[in-house]
Specification:
alpha/beta, TIM Barrel, eight-stranded parallel β-barrel, 16 helices
């Protein structure tokens, strides 16, 4: 699969990287003046996370960040996408910065740059300060304003070290899993609140983007989505129409406001939702980002179904016979090409990056301790091949970030689902390279640094 950097599918400046997230790897929830996040609170509620696990230790990256950089150097990637914990920088979600938190991220970013690895900093990957949740969280407009202040603080303090910024990671999850289904922190279950949260997340993104540009930021700034374009279960027109309707909540609900300055009206009307829009909001939200990150893991299959109050769009997910990962997700590389094509064809051209792509497998070590994760290697190989086909098709795909560097805290699944290129011993913190680590190192080397 991996060839020389002269391969026309990927240019020499194509970015090869890996991604992580603060709560999933850092640990040390009280070190250096960090405040409490909604995930600290959520994990303490019985029954929310498998076996009562939490990110209190995780990969211990707050203390072992130099070990992480050493792994990244060995892996040979051009970029590392990490997230900054808002409560580590502003323990109460507002006010004066916590210098210890800023210093941690400055050391990390500068350490990466010293090794020739470009830091990609995500401002928000789900760990909202609990103090802001206590005042209403994302369904409340003030949270978007506080986020803009926090973003501006990060730009001022860390702008010399970071040139690539992501405002939000997968705001659909924050809004609809956090405030709709309650599967994620803070565990609230109110449909109207989930849509209010969606609007305020987008507003926070737009305000942060404006703060960066108004402040003279010379790098690039965008956001990361987990868009979906389910495939139709058959060629029947009603199933194909259902598949398009099923895409709106994960795709059009986010890209339409950004690129067209409006929400998909039919989707909102079907749910009796009125977004809490204040004059000027849509102008703020629709300032074009420098790039869109696409997180892709799998593609569902859907068919037409009778509309209900819970599913007014009228579609139902159907079982498939495809290979599945340990998450129970279909392995469907062509779905990656389809969603990239869908975005490039329906919204104005902007640079695209695959900012997360990976798979969980059981990863049982051999007697000698070697983890021969051939399933993950095949998954990465086939999805990278799909990315290559996207480039050949003229889609402006500029980079690929594997998820993830290390096995880590997988949200409500605790530590039971392993996505990493590196295994982490939960007792000792020892990092152990899987076969997929060496495979991805060869990919990064084969296409050149």
């Amino acid at each position: 699969m991996h060839r020389s950097s002269s391969d026309p599918r990927f240019s020499p400046d194509f970015i090869w990287g890996v991604s992580t997230a603060s709560y999933q790897i850092e640990g040390s929830p009280e070190a250096g003046g960090r405040g409490k996040s909604i995930w600290d609170t959520f994990c303490a509620i019985p029954g929310t996370v498998l076996d009562g696990q939490s990110g209190d230790i995780a990969c211990d990256s707050y203390r072992r960040w130099k070990d992480d950089i050493a792994l990244l150097r060995e892996l040979g990637v051009k970029a590392y996408r990490f997230s900054m914990a808002w409560p580590r920088i502003q323990p109460e979600g507002s006010g004066a910065p916590n210098r210890a938190g800023l210093d941690y991220y400055r050391r990390l970013a500068n350490g990466l740059r010293d090794e020739g690895i470009e830091p990609w900093a995500t401002l928000y990957h789900w760990d909202l300060p609990q103090a802001l949740e206590d005042r209403g969280g994302w369904p409340v407009r003030d949270t978007a304003l506080r986020f803009a202040d926090y973003a501006g603080l990060c730009f001022r303090e860390l702008g010399d070290s970071v040139a690539n910024w992501v405002t939000l990671n997968e705001p659909w999850c924050s809004a609809f899993l956090g405030y709709g289904s309650g599967e994620h922190a803070p565990g609230r279950t109110d449909r109207a609140e989930s849509y209010a949260a969606a609007h305020h997340l987008l507003l926070g993104h737009g305000l942060a983007l404006g703060a960066y540009r108004d402040g003279g930021g010379e790098g690039r700034i965008g956001l990361v989505l987990n868009p979906a374009l389910p495939r139709a279960a058959s060629t029947r027109p009603e199933d194909e129409s259902a598949a398009l309707r099923a895409s709106v909540e994960r795709t059009g609900l986010w890209l339409d406001p950004i690129y067209r300055g409006t929400y998909p009206v039919g989707h909102l009307h079907a749910r009796d939702i009125v977004m809490p829009i204040v004059p000027g909001d849509m102008e703020t939200i629709s300032a074009p980002p420098d790039f869109i990150g696409v997180n892709y893991y799998n593609e569902d299959a859907v068919q037409s179904a009778a509309p209900t109050s819970e599913n007014p769009d009228g579609f139902a997910q159907v079982a498939t016979w495809q290979d599945k990962t340990a998450m129970g997700w279909d392995v469907e590389p062509e779905g990656l090409l389809r969603i990239l094509s869908f975005i490039a064809g329906n919204w104005p051209e902007t640079d695209l990056y695959i900012t997360e792509n990976g798979a969980a497998y059981e990863d049982v070590p051999d007697q000698d301790g070697r983890i021969r994760d051939s399933g993950r290697i095949a998954y990465l190989r086939d999805h990278i091949a799909a990315a290559a086909r996207a480039v050949i098709a003229g889609i402006p795909l500029r980079g690929y970030f594997a998820w993830t560097l290390m096995d880590n805290f997988e949200w409500s699944h605790g530590y039971s689902k392993r996505f990493g290129l590196v295994a982490v011993d939960r007792k000792t913190g020892e990092r152990r390279r899987k076969d997929s680590f060496h495979y991805y190192r060869d990919v990064a080397a084969g296409y050149g640094r």
